[in-house]
Design a protein that fits this description.
Length: 344
């Protein structure tokens, strides 16, 4: 068994896939999650896939004493992967204080406890949202950080800065910031995926709910952008590929291979796919016809963004492997499984 890793938000969408990959790679995992956007059955499904049941503590990362007790209970935690955060862009505009409190407070608690418990490093879930609309595409890690469009986006930027400031102050920790592009899809077993929480705001959950008949129609937000087909372009990254990026980041950190105490990596495919292309890829992959209509632009949307993932390819030895059609088929299989389980 390799080192012990604390995964906050480990029953969530990306967290749960990452726990599976960590366990497959031999790491011992302790999950901390307040179940605000997931449920405890996810732990059973992780066990079903990987054959190992991760330790699980139901806890909010804002609870400093509770977190302290977790580090004491599971002696020898070597690194943290910090997923636990609120992530709905629209909600963050309505409830900024909730977002600042949750997303900043949780990270601050972890950073405070790390030296005390001998935790060597933290992998942080950041986002391509920090780039805003980049001046150059594909976007590299050197691109300037643009003013955030939402409190959610701002918490990602501030969290990156907090980590840099704490490391610069001499804290004996390392950090790897992973800037995710647009994670989509589900585990090929259809045992893990993104659990629905009200009306989806993101494209693929809305699309699969429309395809299965929960929603009447998918609205495509704008076809008058300056792109080949007029719809927005994103870099859609398979969630299992994304999960694997965390494992190689942890390997690098714990093997002492980091060249800088804080390293940043884009985690994307390097390929831009438009919203309309994605719809057609879904129809091709699944044979299901989608009811959609073009409507006006959505406020705050970026026109086009996709990653230059070369640094992650070269330095981490990580590359996105799964094609868009396989990924969309996995999202569809997950939606079918949700129906089987009576979840809408
Ligand atoms: C957003 C956030 C990103 C965050 C991510 C979380 C912004 C600018 N970006 O990404 O920081 O990490 O969510 O998953 O806030 N679309 C439709 N119809 C729909 C839904 C979406 O046409 O019903 C289009 C959008 O206009 C956009 C694309 O699909 O062009 C992707 O949208 P979405 O899945 O919401 O992700 P982002 O906005 O790219």
């Amino acid at each position: 068994m390799k080192e012990k890793i604390l995964v906050t938000g480990g029953t969530g969408y990306i967290g749960s896939h990452t726990v599976v990959e960590l366990q497959n790679a031999g790491y011992e995992v302790v999950i901390v999650d307040n179940l605000s956007n997931s449920n405890a059955d996810v732990v059973d499904n992780i066990e079903q896939i990987s054959g190992i049941r991760p330790a699980f503590e139901k806890l909010d990362c804002l609870d400093l004493e509770g977190l302290d007790a977790v580090f004491t209970k599971y002696q020898g935690i070597k690194a943290i992967i910090h997923f636990a955060a609120s992530k709905a862009v629209g909600e963050s505009v309505q409830k900024p204080l909730l977002y600042y409190r949750n997303n900043l407070g949780s990270l601050i608690n972890l950073l405070e406890l790390m030296p005390k418990h001998g935790v060597e490093g933290i992998v942080f879930s950041s986002s391509c949202t920090v780039y805003g609309q980049p001046d150059q595409l594909p976007v590299t890690e050197e691109a300037p950080i643009k003013k955030a469009e939402s409190p959610y986006g701002n918490t990602k930027q501030i969290n990156e800065e907090i980590i840099r400031d704490v490391v610069a102050s001499g804290s004996p920790i390392h950090a790897i910031l992973l800037r995710y592009f647009n994670p989509i899809g589900a585990h090929p077993s259809a045992l893990l995926g993104e659990l629905p929480n009200g009306v989806p705001q993101n494209l693929v959950p809305y699309l699969t709910q429309t395809a299965i008949g929960i929603r009447e129609k998918l609205s495509v937000f704008g076809d008058d952008y300056n792109t080949p087909d007029g719809s927005c372009i994103r870099d859609f990254i398979n969630v299992v590929d994304l999960a694997k990026a965390h494992v190689v980041a942890i390997d690098r950190m714990l093997e002492g291979k980091q060249e800088e105490k804080v390293e940043v990596f884009n985690i994307g495919t390097g390929r831009g796919v438009s919203v309309l292309e994605l719809i057609h890829a879904f129809e091709k992959a699944t044979g299901v016809k989608l009811n959609y209509q073009i409507v006006g632009r959505r406020a705050g949307d970026i026109e086009q963004v996709w990653a230059n993932p070369e640094r992650a390819n070269k330095v981490l030895g990580w590359k996105a492997e799964t094609g868009i059609e396989d990924t969309l088929r996995s999202a569809w299989n997950w939606q079918l499984k949700l129906r089987e389980r009576g979840i809408q």
